[in-house]
């Protein structure tokens, strides 16, 4: 699916509200928007598999960053995209139109019509800063 900078910034703004670090936000955004496999650690987190998440975690990952990510998942992530390995796998296989409709419904991205109107009005947008 193609999204504009407006939708990208809208999605990333949700990460800033939870202080999710960029190296956690990027895989989550790519997973949600494009259906990319998020990798072993993030797949385990999304599947609620604590043991596998800890075993596959990079040594630089912090508990604080994980807490921020989990808060974001609980508050912002569409329920269709997490809770067990089956849902994670299904999300990756969803047609892009279905993923887009769910993300629009959750308010994580703009509708295509809203994106067009924002672009035609040349609305300014600011890229959220993630640490």
Task: Report on this structure.
The chain has 8 helices and no strands. With about 130 residues, the chain is an all-alpha fold. It has one domain.
Features:
mainly alpha; 8 helices
Mean pLDDT: 97
Shape: globular
Query: How many structural domains does the protein architecture include?
Result: 1
**What is the number of beta strands?**
0
Q: Tell me the structural class.
A: mainly alpha
Strand content: under 5%
**What's the tally of helices?**
8
Question: Helix content range of the residues, please?
Answer: 55-70%
How far apart are the termini?
26 Å
Q: Ranges with pLDDT <50 over ≥5 residues?
A: none
Radius of gyration: 15 Å
Order of helices and strands: HHHHHHHH
Main sheet properties: none
In short:
With 131 residues, this protein is mostly helical.
How is this fold's topology laid out?
Elements (H helix, E strand, L loop, with lengths): L4 H13 L4 H13 L5 H7 L3 H7 L6 H14 L8 H9 L2 H10 L6 H9 L11
């Amino acid at each position: 699916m193609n999204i504009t900078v407006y939708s990208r910034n809208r999605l990333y703004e949700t990460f800033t509200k939870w202080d999710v670090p960029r190296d956690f936000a990027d895989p989550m955004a790519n997973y949600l928007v494009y259906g990319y496999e998020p990798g072993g650690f993030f797949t385990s987190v999304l599947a609620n598999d604590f043991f596998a998440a800890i075993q596959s975690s990079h040594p630089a990952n912090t508990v604080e960053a994980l807490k921020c990510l989990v808060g974001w998942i609980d508050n912002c992530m569409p329920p269709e995209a997490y809770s067990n390995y089956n849902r994670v796998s299904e999300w990756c296989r969803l047609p892009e139109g279905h993923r887009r409709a769910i993300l629009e419904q959750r308010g994580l991205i703009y509708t295509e019509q809203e994106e067009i109107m924002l672009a035609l009005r040349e609305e300014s947008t600011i890229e959220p800063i993630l640490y």
